[in-house]
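Kindly inspect this today.
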Amino acid sequence: MPSSYSRLHTIRDIAGHPLNRERPVRALMRYLGWNIGRRLVDLEYVMPLAGDAKVVLSNHENYATLAYTEQLWDYSEMLFLLHLLRPGDLFVDIGSNVGGYTVLASAVAGARSIAVEPVPSTYAKLLRNLRLNGIEDSVEAINIGLADRPASLRFTETLGGLNHVIAAGQSRGGVEVQVRTLDCVLSARAPVMMKLDVEGYEMQVLRGAERCLARPELMALIVELNGSGIRYGHSDEQVHQVLLAHGFAPHDYDPGSRVLAPRQSFNTDGLTRFTVAEETKRYRAGSLRHQKSGFVIARSKGGNPRDQGRRIEASAASLRPRLVTTRRPAPPPGPAARIAARCALPGS
Protein backbone atom coordinates (compact mmCIF):
# COMPACT_ATOMS: atom_id res chain seq x y z
CA MET A 1 0.00 0.00 0.00
CA PRO A 2 1.52 3.37 -1.00
CA SER A 3 2.42 5.73 1.85
CA SER A 4 0.85 9.18 2.24
CA TYR A 5 4.13 10.72 1.08
CA SER A 6 4.14 8.51 -2.00
CA ARG A 7 0.57 9.49 -2.84
CA LEU A 8 1.36 13.19 -2.47
CA HIS A 9 4.40 12.76 -4.70
CA THR A 10 2.24 11.02 -7.33
CA ILE A 11 -0.43 13.75 -7.15
CA ARG A 12 2.19 16.48 -7.60
CA ASP A 13 3.72 14.57 -10.49
CA ILE A 14 0.36 14.16 -12.23
CA ALA A 15 -0.75 17.77 -11.72
CA GLY A 16 2.60 19.14 -12.87
CA HIS A 17 3.03 16.86 -15.88
CA PRO A 18 3.49 18.89 -19.09
CA LEU A 19 0.40 17.30 -20.69
CA ASN A 20 -1.71 18.12 -17.62
CA ARG A 21 -0.54 21.61 -16.66
CA GLU A 22 -3.37 23.37 -18.47
CA ARG A 23 -5.99 21.09 -16.83
CA PRO A 24 -4.62 19.90 -13.47
CA VAL A 25 -8.05 19.51 -11.85
CA ARG A 26 -9.27 17.26 -14.67
CA ALA A 27 -6.09 15.20 -14.37
CA LEU A 28 -6.59 14.76 -10.63
CA MET A 29 -10.22 13.73 -11.14
CA ARG A 30 -8.98 11.08 -13.58
CA TYR A 31 -6.53 9.93 -10.93
CA LEU A 32 -9.31 9.67 -8.34
CA GLY A 33 -11.61 7.73 -10.68
CA TRP A 34 -8.75 5.45 -11.71
CA ASN A 35 -7.92 4.52 -8.14
CA ILE A 36 -11.53 3.78 -7.28
CA GLY A 37 -11.90 1.60 -10.35
CA ARG A 38 -8.71 -0.40 -9.89
CA ARG A 39 -9.77 -1.34 -6.37
CA LEU A 40 -13.05 -2.72 -7.64
CA VAL A 41 -12.00 -4.70 -10.69
CA ASP A 42 -8.89 -5.92 -12.49
CA LEU A 43 -9.02 -4.67 -16.07
CA GLU A 44 -6.79 -4.07 -19.06
CA TYR A 45 -6.88 -0.71 -20.81
CA VAL A 46 -5.78 0.47 -24.24
CA MET A 47 -3.48 3.37 -23.35
CA PRO A 48 -2.80 5.94 -26.12
CA LEU A 49 0.80 7.07 -26.43
CA ALA A 50 1.40 9.39 -29.39
CA GLY A 51 -0.41 9.64 -32.71
CA ASP A 52 -2.03 6.27 -33.34
CA ALA A 53 0.42 4.38 -31.14
CA LYS A 54 -0.99 2.62 -28.08
CA VAL A 55 -0.38 -0.19 -25.62
CA VAL A 56 -2.63 -2.55 -23.69
CA LEU A 57 -1.81 -2.32 -19.99
CA SER A 58 -3.28 -3.88 -16.86
CA ASN A 59 -4.61 -1.42 -14.32
CA HIS A 60 -2.48 -3.24 -11.72
CA GLU A 61 0.81 -2.70 -13.56
CA ASN A 62 3.19 -0.69 -11.34
CA TYR A 63 3.31 2.29 -13.75
CA ALA A 64 -0.27 2.02 -15.05
CA THR A 65 -1.52 4.96 -12.96
CA LEU A 66 0.98 7.31 -14.58
CA ALA A 67 0.33 5.84 -18.02
CA TYR A 68 -3.41 6.51 -17.61
CA THR A 69 -3.13 9.99 -16.11
CA GLU A 70 -0.03 11.28 -17.94
CA GLN A 71 0.01 9.33 -21.21
CA LEU A 72 3.79 9.65 -21.64
CA TRP A 73 4.79 8.56 -18.15
CA ASP A 74 8.54 9.09 -18.71
CA TYR A 75 7.95 12.37 -20.48
CA SER A 76 11.47 13.73 -21.08
CA GLU A 77 12.94 10.30 -21.80
CA MET A 78 10.18 9.33 -24.21
CA LEU A 79 10.37 12.63 -26.09
CA PHE A 80 14.15 12.38 -26.21
CA LEU A 81 13.70 9.01 -27.89
CA LEU A 82 11.19 10.42 -30.37
CA HIS A 83 13.35 13.46 -31.12
CA LEU A 84 16.57 11.50 -31.54
CA LEU A 85 15.50 8.41 -33.48
CA ARG A 86 14.62 8.46 -37.16
CA PRO A 87 13.54 5.89 -39.72
CA GLY A 88 16.09 3.13 -40.18
CA ASP A 89 17.87 3.63 -36.86
CA LEU A 90 18.21 0.64 -34.55
CA PHE A 91 16.79 0.93 -31.02
CA VAL A 92 17.43 -1.76 -28.41
CA ASP A 93 14.92 -2.07 -25.56
CA ILE A 94 16.40 -4.22 -22.75
CA GLY A 95 13.71 -5.11 -20.26
CA SER A 96 10.99 -4.00 -22.63
CA ASN A 97 8.07 -5.13 -20.44
CA VAL A 98 4.89 -4.73 -22.55
CA GLY A 99 6.72 -2.54 -25.06
CA GLY A 100 5.93 1.12 -24.36
CA TYR A 101 9.32 2.40 -25.52
CA THR A 102 9.52 -0.09 -28.38
CA VAL A 103 6.11 1.00 -29.70
CA LEU A 104 7.17 4.65 -29.63
CA ALA A 105 10.46 3.87 -31.36
CA SER A 106 9.00 1.78 -34.19
CA ALA A 107 5.37 2.93 -34.56
CA VAL A 108 6.04 6.66 -34.16
CA ALA A 109 9.72 7.32 -34.91
CA GLY A 110 9.93 4.63 -37.59
CA ALA A 111 13.06 2.99 -36.17
CA ARG A 112 13.84 -0.72 -36.19
CA SER A 113 13.80 -2.21 -32.69
CA ILE A 114 15.08 -5.20 -30.79
CA ALA A 115 12.90 -5.79 -27.72
CA VAL A 116 14.30 -8.12 -25.06
CA GLU A 117 11.83 -9.37 -22.42
CA PRO A 118 12.70 -12.42 -20.29
CA VAL A 119 9.43 -13.23 -18.49
CA PRO A 120 7.22 -15.40 -20.77
CA SER A 121 3.87 -14.01 -19.57
CA THR A 122 5.08 -10.42 -20.09
CA TYR A 123 6.63 -11.36 -23.43
CA ALA A 124 3.19 -12.51 -24.62
CA LYS A 125 1.81 -9.05 -23.77
CA LEU A 126 4.69 -7.45 -25.65
CA LEU A 127 3.83 -9.46 -28.77
CA ARG A 128 0.19 -8.42 -28.46
CA ASN A 129 1.17 -4.74 -28.41
CA LEU A 130 3.38 -5.19 -31.46
CA ARG A 131 0.41 -6.70 -33.32
CA LEU A 132 -1.90 -3.96 -32.04
CA ASN A 133 0.35 -1.33 -33.63
CA GLY A 134 1.16 -3.32 -36.78
CA ILE A 135 4.92 -3.21 -36.20
CA GLU A 136 5.78 -6.92 -36.08
CA ASP A 137 7.98 -6.52 -39.16
CA SER A 138 9.91 -3.63 -37.59
CA VAL A 139 10.60 -5.26 -34.22
CA GLU A 140 12.62 -8.33 -33.34
CA ALA A 141 11.15 -9.52 -30.03
CA ILE A 142 13.30 -11.94 -28.04
CA ASN A 143 12.15 -13.95 -25.02
CA ILE A 144 15.47 -14.18 -23.17
CA GLY A 145 17.38 -12.44 -20.42
CA LEU A 146 20.73 -10.68 -20.79
CA ALA A 147 23.81 -11.11 -18.62
CA ASP A 148 27.61 -11.27 -18.80
CA ARG A 149 27.68 -14.89 -20.02
CA PRO A 150 25.30 -17.47 -21.51
CA ALA A 151 23.44 -19.35 -18.77
CA SER A 152 19.99 -19.81 -17.32
CA LEU A 153 18.59 -17.67 -14.51
CA ARG A 154 15.36 -17.59 -12.55
CA PHE A 155 13.12 -14.52 -12.79
CA THR A 156 10.15 -13.44 -10.71
CA GLU A 157 6.97 -13.51 -12.81
CA THR A 158 4.18 -11.86 -10.76
CA LEU A 159 5.58 -8.35 -10.26
CA GLY A 160 4.84 -6.80 -13.65
CA GLY A 161 7.35 -4.07 -14.46
CA LEU A 162 9.27 -4.92 -11.28
CA ASN A 163 10.10 -8.51 -12.27
CA HIS A 164 13.80 -9.25 -11.79
CA VAL A 165 16.47 -11.90 -11.59
CA ILE A 166 16.11 -13.95 -8.40
CA ALA A 167 19.40 -13.42 -6.56
CA ALA A 168 21.23 -15.98 -4.49
CA GLY A 169 19.61 -16.14 -1.07
CA GLN A 170 16.22 -14.98 -2.28
CA SER A 171 13.27 -17.33 -2.08
CA ARG A 172 13.09 -19.76 -4.98
CA GLY A 173 10.23 -20.04 -7.40
CA GLY A 174 9.74 -17.88 -10.43
CA VAL A 175 10.51 -19.01 -13.96
CA GLU A 176 13.75 -20.26 -15.48
CA VAL A 177 14.91 -18.24 -18.49
CA GLN A 178 17.84 -18.64 -20.86
CA VAL A 179 20.21 -15.66 -20.87
CA ARG A 180 22.77 -14.49 -23.43
CA THR A 181 25.07 -11.52 -23.81
CA LEU A 182 23.94 -8.44 -25.70
CA ASP A 183 27.04 -8.64 -27.90
CA CYS A 184 25.98 -12.13 -28.96
CA VAL A 185 22.41 -11.00 -29.68
CA LEU A 186 23.48 -8.00 -31.74
CA SER A 187 26.36 -9.67 -33.58
CA ALA A 188 27.44 -7.04 -36.14
CA ARG A 189 24.42 -4.76 -35.63
CA ALA A 190 24.91 -1.37 -33.97
CA PRO A 191 22.12 0.54 -32.21
CA VAL A 192 21.82 4.30 -32.18
CA MET A 193 20.04 4.22 -28.82
CA MET A 194 19.34 1.74 -26.03
CA LYS A 195 17.03 1.61 -23.03
CA LEU A 196 18.16 -0.45 -20.03
CA ASP A 197 15.58 -1.21 -17.33
CA VAL A 198 16.50 -4.48 -15.62
CA GLU A 199 15.76 -3.79 -11.96
CA GLY A 200 19.31 -3.89 -10.65
CA TYR A 201 20.97 -6.27 -13.13
CA GLU A 202 22.60 -3.43 -15.09
CA MET A 203 26.20 -4.35 -14.28
CA GLN A 204 25.89 -7.89 -15.62
CA VAL A 205 24.15 -6.70 -18.79
CA LEU A 206 26.80 -4.04 -19.44
CA ARG A 207 29.62 -6.55 -18.94
CA GLY A 208 28.11 -8.58 -21.75
CA ALA A 209 27.86 -5.51 -24.01
CA GLU A 210 31.49 -4.41 -24.33
CA ARG A 211 31.52 -4.42 -28.14
CA CYS A 212 28.17 -2.67 -28.37
CA LEU A 213 29.23 0.11 -25.99
CA ALA A 214 32.37 0.70 -28.06
CA ARG A 215 30.46 1.15 -31.33
CA PRO A 216 30.62 4.74 -32.64
CA GLU A 217 27.01 4.51 -33.86
CA LEU A 218 25.68 4.31 -30.28
CA MET A 219 24.71 7.83 -29.27
CA ALA A 220 22.64 7.46 -26.11
CA LEU A 221 21.32 5.17 -23.43
CA ILE A 222 18.28 5.54 -21.20
CA VAL A 223 19.09 3.79 -17.92
CA GLU A 224 17.16 3.29 -14.72
CA LEU A 225 19.24 3.21 -11.55
CA ASN A 226 17.11 2.77 -8.44
CA GLY A 227 19.36 1.04 -5.92
CA SER A 228 18.23 -2.47 -6.85
CA GLY A 229 21.73 -3.54 -7.83
CA ILE A 230 22.67 -4.02 -4.20
CA ARG A 231 20.98 -7.43 -4.21
CA TYR A 232 23.45 -8.51 -6.91
CA GLY A 233 26.50 -7.07 -5.15
CA HIS A 234 27.00 -3.74 -6.88
CA SER A 235 25.95 -0.12 -6.39
CA ASP A 236 24.48 2.41 -8.79
CA GLU A 237 27.74 4.37 -8.56
CA GLN A 238 29.67 1.37 -9.86
CA VAL A 239 27.32 1.18 -12.87
CA HIS A 240 27.80 4.90 -13.37
CA GLN A 241 31.58 4.46 -13.41
CA VAL A 242 31.33 1.69 -16.00
CA LEU A 243 29.33 3.99 -18.27
CA LEU A 244 31.83 6.81 -17.77
CA ALA A 245 34.68 4.45 -18.63
CA HIS A 246 32.92 3.69 -21.93
CA GLY A 247 32.62 7.39 -22.75
CA PHE A 248 29.05 8.06 -21.62
CA ALA A 249 28.09 10.86 -19.24
CA PRO A 250 24.74 11.74 -17.62
CA HIS A 251 22.63 14.55 -19.04
CA ASP A 252 19.21 16.06 -18.53
CA TYR A 253 16.97 16.79 -21.50
CA ASP A 254 14.43 19.59 -21.83
CA PRO A 255 11.87 18.48 -24.47
CA GLY A 256 10.53 22.01 -24.88
CA SER A 257 13.83 23.65 -25.81
CA ARG A 258 15.38 20.35 -26.94
CA VAL A 259 18.52 21.15 -25.01
CA LEU A 260 20.83 18.69 -23.26
CA ALA A 261 22.40 19.80 -19.99
CA PRO A 262 25.29 17.89 -18.38
CA ARG A 263 24.75 16.47 -14.90
CA GLN A 264 27.40 15.98 -12.26
CA SER A 265 26.07 12.49 -11.55
CA PHE A 266 23.16 10.15 -12.23
CA ASN A 267 19.70 10.63 -10.76
CA THR A 268 19.20 9.04 -7.37
CA ASP A 269 15.40 9.33 -7.19
CA GLY A 270 14.73 6.11 -9.08
CA LEU A 271 13.51 7.84 -12.26
CA THR A 272 14.83 6.76 -15.63
CA ARG A 273 17.36 9.13 -17.13
CA PHE A 274 19.88 8.83 -19.96
CA THR A 275 23.55 9.24 -20.72
CA VAL A 276 25.11 10.45 -23.94
CA ALA A 277 28.48 9.90 -25.52
CA GLU A 278 31.36 12.09 -24.38
CA GLU A 279 33.53 13.74 -27.00
CA THR A 280 36.70 12.01 -25.83
CA LYS A 281 35.30 8.75 -27.24
CA ARG A 282 33.12 9.85 -30.12
CA TYR A 283 33.35 12.60 -32.71
CA ARG A 284 30.47 12.45 -35.13
CA ALA A 285 30.35 14.57 -38.26
CA GLY A 286 28.53 14.63 -41.57
CA SER A 287 26.04 16.54 -43.64
CA LEU A 288 23.05 18.04 -41.85
CA ARG A 289 19.77 16.71 -43.19
CA HIS A 290 16.22 17.43 -42.13
CA GLN A 291 13.45 14.85 -41.99
CA LYS A 292 10.21 16.12 -40.56
CA SER A 293 7.58 13.93 -38.96
CA GLY A 294 4.79 14.79 -36.57
CA PHE A 295 2.69 13.21 -33.91
CA VAL A 296 -0.23 14.41 -31.86
CA ILE A 297 -0.72 14.21 -28.13
CA ALA A 298 -4.05 15.51 -26.87
CA ARG A 299 -6.89 14.73 -24.50
CA SER A 300 -10.58 14.95 -25.27
CA LYS A 301 -13.21 16.20 -22.83
CA GLY A 302 -13.82 12.61 -21.84
CA GLY A 303 -10.20 12.19 -20.93
CA ASN A 304 -9.20 9.95 -23.84
CA PRO A 305 -6.28 11.30 -25.87
CA ARG A 306 -7.37 12.15 -29.41
CA ASP A 307 -5.96 14.05 -32.35
CA GLN A 308 -7.42 17.46 -31.55
CA GLY A 309 -4.78 20.05 -31.41
CA ARG A 310 -1.78 19.67 -29.15
CA ARG A 311 0.90 19.00 -31.70
CA ILE A 312 4.46 18.14 -30.94
CA GLU A 313 6.76 17.99 -33.93
CA ALA A 314 9.27 15.17 -33.69
CA SER A 315 11.89 16.04 -36.24
CA ALA A 316 15.07 14.30 -37.14
CA ALA A 317 17.73 16.76 -38.14
CA SER A 318 20.72 14.51 -37.99
CA LEU A 319 24.47 14.28 -38.18
CA ARG A 320 25.28 10.97 -39.85
CA PRO A 321 27.95 9.48 -37.59
CA ARG A 322 31.41 8.50 -38.65
CA LEU A 323 34.48 7.98 -36.49
CA VAL A 324 37.24 10.51 -37.16
CA THR A 325 40.56 8.72 -37.47
CA THR A 326 42.92 11.68 -37.87
CA ARG A 327 45.57 11.91 -35.19
CA ARG A 328 44.71 15.49 -34.28
CA PRO A 329 41.07 16.19 -35.17
CA ALA A 330 39.56 19.61 -34.94
CA PRO A 331 37.80 20.28 -31.64
CA PRO A 332 34.42 18.61 -31.95
CA PRO A 333 31.11 20.16 -30.95
CA GLY A 334 29.94 19.39 -27.44
CA PRO A 335 27.56 16.49 -26.84
CA ALA A 336 24.64 18.81 -26.13
CA ALA A 337 25.12 20.67 -29.41
CA ARG A 338 25.62 17.49 -31.42
CA ILE A 339 22.51 15.66 -30.26
CA ALA A 340 20.48 18.87 -30.15
CA ALA A 341 21.26 19.21 -33.87
CA ARG A 342 19.76 15.77 -34.42
CA CYS A 343 16.70 16.61 -32.31
CA ALA A 344 16.10 20.14 -33.56
CA LEU A 345 13.13 21.15 -35.67
CA PRO A 346 13.92 21.97 -39.32
CA GLY A 347 14.99 25.55 -39.75
CA SER A 348 15.84 26.09 -36.08
